[in-house]
């Protein structure tokens, strides 16, 4: 039997780092974890509501949260930050104020910064959003996967694997389809592999998208 593990968790401390940086006592740990999840969901919903893109890609690669005694620093890594800035010029300030109210951070100041990713389609989250948008528009899953691989090639990656599972193309029986281009050494810890798992709701039901991108390493 194959033993499956999240490729990012497998490489923490070697080629990958944590997306949340803070310390808590064991009794407060679950509270901090839930707060992180709520913050991430709130930001994603806000960006989704306030940006209208033709491709359906909001472009959030990851959200890093750093907590100190008196400050919560949030860094949003985006592929296309212009979308948010142009659609709402004061969007960041508004988001910051809303988050402050939502989480009652009276004793802690909340600060949000946006960082731009140089090659957006070299990130699995942005690529998964692109594929999800294509599947919602009833584009053939093979076309969507091939187009995603073409976009990744422009981002100079060493390899990519895309997998879609569920009732693909509305077929009665769920199945798994995948495609690979280049090398994706999942068992090599020194290989930096970025991974994401994404859920897309189509008219036929829920599809799962998984993407592995081999960025650098041996």
Automatic annotation (TrEMBL):
- Domain KH type-2: residue ranges: 47-118
Q: Which GO terms describe its cellular component?
A: chloroplast; cytosolic small ribosomal subunit
Signal peptide span per the entry? none
CDD domains named among the record's database cross-references: KH-II_30S_S3 (cd02412)
Keywords (alphabetical) are:
Chloroplast, Plastid, Ribonucleoprotein, Ribosomal protein, RNA-binding, rRNA-binding
Q: Which family does it belong to?
A: Belongs to the universal ribosomal protein uS3 family.
Q: Which SUPFAM superfamilies match?
A: Prokaryotic type KH domain (KH-domain type II), Ribosomal protein S3 C-terminal domain
One GO BP annotation is: translation
Q: What is this protein called?
A: Small ribosomal subunit protein uS3c
Q: How does it assemble?
A: Part of the 30S ribosomal subunit.
Give GO MF terms, alphabetically: rRNA binding; structural constituent of ribosome
Q: Which Pfam families match?
A: Ribosomal_S3_C (PF00189)
Subcellular compartments: Plastid, Chloroplast
User: Does the keyword Signal belong to this entry?
Assistant: no
